[in-house]
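cron nightly-structures :: item 1 of 1
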Amino acid sequence: MAAKLYTQHHLKEITSCMNRKSVIPIFLERTNQSFTTLSLLKMPFSKKWILAVISLAFTTTAFGAPDCKCRPNDGCWPSHYIWQALNTSISGKLIKPVPAAINLTACSVVVSKLSNEELVRDDPIALDSPSSTDYGCPPIDFSAGGLITGNCTMGDAPRQGIAFKQRYTSSNNCQKPVWDGSAFKIAGGYIWEEVYAEAEKENVIVVGGSDPTVGAIGGWAQGGGHSPASRDYGLGVQQILEAEVVLTNGSLITASACENQDLFAIRGGGGGTYGLVVSTTVKAYPMKHIVAQVLNVSPLTDTYIPVFMDALTLIYSEYPDLNDAGFSGYGTWGVQSPLIAIGNSTTGYNHRLGAFGRSIGDAKMSFEPLMLKLAQFNASLSVSATYTSFPTYADYYSALAVSRYGAGDAYVLGSRLFDRKALTASTRDLKEMLNVVAGSSGQLTRTTVCLVSGGQVFVSDHTAGFNPAWRSSYVHQMVRRGWSAGTDAAVAQEINDEMLYAKAGAMKKLAPDTGCYMNECDARDPDYLKDFYGQSLSRLEEVKRAYDPHDVFYCPTCVGSNRWKLEANGTLCRNV
C-alpha cells in the first residue's frame, strides 16, 4: 500500500500514530524528484502502521535557490489534496499540528491544566516548558478537539508492544554482548510508567527514568538515560541489546552489536538524529531489596545560611566516596527561594540515596563519616537522617525515587557533569560554584543533584555513543531558574543570560574538561558539540553522514546541526 506524491517540492513534517497515541516525526527536505513514494510498513509487534519514506534524495531547490527546509507558505509545500491523499493512505492517522494559541478559545482550554504533565505528554507538539516557545500558551489536547482520527488515544489499546522474554535471544543470533538474562522488547511510544508496571508483574528490574512519564525508547534512551538504578546496572543506553530503526530511505533495519554496529551508536548519540527508533530490546534484572537514607539539612534561621553553604560543600565532597560504597540517587536544594525547600524553610537540602542488597547497618556505617562531619553544625543547622529498607526496587522507586515534574512552567536549565577532581580537589572552588548557582534571595532557582553514575556507568563500552565524560563523572548537576507568568520578555531574557553565563559558567569553570548530559543541558551552550558529545563527536559525525547524508533529521543541537543555520525569516538553510 503506497501513496505517490508527483512533482512536488517536499516537505517539512509528518506525524503519525505508532502503536498507541505516541507520535513519530518524520522530516523531509525540499527535493526536485519527479516523485517520492511513501510506503507503510506493518510492524510484527502490533497491528498499527507507521509512515516510512522510500527513495528520498536531497537535491538543491529550483533556480539555484539555497538548500532550505520547506515551510508551510513555501511553494514546495504539498497541497491540501496531497495531504488528504496521504492521510487516507494511512487510515486517517495523520496529525495536523496546530498551535494552541491560534485563538483565545483554544488557549483558554488548558489554562486550568498548565501543570498537567499528562496533558503535555498526550499532545503531539506540546513541550514541558514554554521557555523555548516564546513563553506562549500551552498546546491544546488534540484528541479532545477532534483533530485526530482513528484509534489513537491513551488507554484504549493493550500493552501488546511491551513483551517480556524470560531469557533473551537475539533476533539475528547475535552472540555479543553475552546476555542470557531477561529482557523486554518495547515496541512503541510507551512511557516508563507502563514498562515499570510490566516489570513489577514479572518481578524484575528495568533501568528507566526517575520521571515515569518519560518515553522509554525516545530521547531518554538515545541521549544517555540516567536512572535511580543506573549506578548498579548502567545508563539507559547500556541496557539496549538491539533496536529496530527506520532509515531515511524507508528501510527497517536492526542495530545491534552484530548487525549495523555503527548505527548502534544511537545508544547515547542523540535522539532523532540518525533514524526513527521504533523498538528497543532492553535488559531486565532479578529483583533485589534496597536500603536508603533520607537526609534533610536546613538552617535554623536565615542568619545561618553561610553555615548551610559550608555544610552543602561538605556533602558534595562526600559524593564520590558514598557512590563508591554503593549509594546513588537524587537530591535537591535551594537558598531563599520562593519555593519551600525543606519543611517550612525556603533554604534547605534533601537527598534520597539507596544501595542494592545492603542492610540498614551497612547504610549507617557508610554514611557515618558524613554524619560525624555534619554534627559540627548542630548549633546552626537542623540535620535529620532516616534509614529505610525496601523489599523490592519497585517499592523503593515508588516511595523515594519517583520524580514527577509539573508541566507548563517557564524556566531555563543549565547542567554539568562533575568528576572526583571537581568535587574534592578544592573546597574553595567548589563552594564558589555552589554560591553562584544558589543565586540571590528571591530567585526562583532549584538545583537537582543526580548521583547516578559510577559503578557500571564507569565500565567501558566502545559500541555506545554517549559522552565519555560519564565514565569518570559521579554527579550530573542540573539547575533550573524560572519566572512567573506575565514576566516581561526582557526580564526573562536576563534570566536566560544569567543561567548561561553565570550559573552554567561557574559549573563549567569547576569542571572544564567534562561536559553535560545532552537531554538536560542548555541548548544555547556555545560549546554544545564538545559538551554534549565529547570525544564521541567525530565518530557520531561519520554515522550521521552514513545513514542520513542529506540531513533529513535535524535539531538545533543534534550531530550535524552545525551544517545548518536559521535565517532571520525563520527558514532553516544549509551553511554555505
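cron nightly-structures :: done
The chain is about 25% helix and 25% strand.
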